[in-house]
Amino acid sequence: MAMDEYLWMVILGFIIAFILAFSVGANDVANSFGTAVGSGVVTLRQACILASIFETTGSVLLGAKVGETIRKGIIDVNLYNETVETLMAGEVSAMVVLYKLVNNCF
């Protein structure tokens, strides 16, 4: 199969996306539950459980819509029908840049 040579890019993209999602999600949780835990309304354990449930639910329910917006609203993927590897490399590169931006801001 022709795509076997690009498997490393898919794996690298998955790892970077996972780290990005984890760090952005952790920041969201800190912003939303920080005052509730600090004031004693919920315990840290309760906040972690609630955050896990709602962050996962949100990503499952809204993840496809975000992907559709990127696919149709931001770039025209049909331009890359002949050069799929260029699109893959561009997406992985964009995630690396985003990773650097996110980790330098928090």
UniProtKB/TrEMBL annotation:
Q: What does this protein do?
A: Sodium-phosphate symporter which preferentially transports the monovalent form of phosphate with a stoichiometry of two sodium ions per phosphate ion. Plays a critical role in the determination of bone quality and strength by providing phosphate for bone mineralization. Required to maintain normal cerebrospinal fluid phosphate levels. Mediates phosphate-induced calcification of vascular smooth muscle cells (VCMCs) and can functionally compensate for loss of SLC20A1 in VCMCs.
| Protein name per the record | Sodium-dependent phosphate transporter 2
Please give the PANTHER family that the UniProt record associates with this protein: PHOSPHATE TRANSPORTER, SODIUM-DEPENDENT PHOSPHATE TRANSPORTER 2
GO BP annotations listed: phosphate ion transmembrane transport; sodium ion transport
Q: What Pfam family is a match, any one?
A: PHO4
Task: Give the subcellular location.
Answer: Apical cell membrane
Q: Where are the transmembrane segments?
A: 6-26
MF terms from GO for this chain are: phosphate transmembrane transporter activity; symporter activity
Subunit: Homodimer.
Q: Does the keyword Membrane apply?
A: yes
> Which keywords does UniProt give here?
Cell membrane, Glycoprotein, Host-virus interaction, Ion transport, Membrane, Phosphate transport, Receptor, Sodium, Sodium transport, Symport, Transmembrane, Transmembrane helix, Transport
Family under the similarity heading: Belongs to the inorganic phosphate transporter (PiT) (TC 2.A.20) family.
The species this protein was found in: Canis lupus dingo (dingo)
Reactions catalysed, semicolon-separated, are: 2 Na(+)(out) + phosphate(out) = 2 Na(+)(in) + phosphate(in)
The GO cellular component terms are:
apical plasma membrane
Q: Which domain of life is it from?
A: Eukaryota
Q: How does it sit in the membrane?
A: Multi-pass membrane protein
